[in-house]
Amino acid sequence: MGFFDFIKDAGKKILGKGDDNEAVKKEIEAHQETMPIDNLDVVVDGDTVVLKGTAKTAADKAKAALIAGNIEGIAKVDAEALETQEPSVIDDIFYEIQKGDTLWKVAEIYYKDGSRYPEIFEANREVIKDPDLIYPGQMIRIPNFVA
């Protein structure tokens, strides 16, 4: 789990207002309490963000990549150098929200049970503030997916 692709023209608008590296870093660090990452270093190079540091878990690493990738102007996130303290197997997948999607619909697709949408919402709280407000092009994590 190192490289992630995103829709460049979708996401939060924070780039181009000063130091882009610092802006993306602050966006990730805003979730430090629930998603701790030690020695976080962020480098924005064109439409790519490179993340370095140490996340507590693989899920925290994935969340940091999602936060960075859901910023308008970012097409790729390289989290290869973002290490994890606790080795873990992550069976999450990433999904790009399509026009007309709801979290219920996504839960039906992946879990065959729409009522499991809160699991998706909770796994993506850093990028989804309201389960009724998702947008096309947004990348989310589908946790605990079993093919």
Number of strands: 7
What is the level-2 CATH architecture name of the largest domain?
Answer: 2-Layer Sandwich
Count of separate structural domains: 2
Determine the mean pLDDT: 88
Please write the CATH class name of the largest domain.
Answer: Alpha Beta
Rg: 15 Å
Distance between the termini: 18 Å
- Summing up helix and strand content along with how strands pair, one would put the structural category as alpha/beta
Helical content stands at 25-40%
Topology as a string of helices (H) and strands (E): EHEEHEEEHHE
Envelope shape? globular
Low-confidence stretches: none
> Which fold name is given in CATH as the topology of the largest domain?
Alpha-Beta Plaits
The biggest sheet amounts to:
5 strands, mixed
Count of helical regions: 4
Kindly estimate the percentage of residues that lie in beta strands according to DSSP: 15-25%
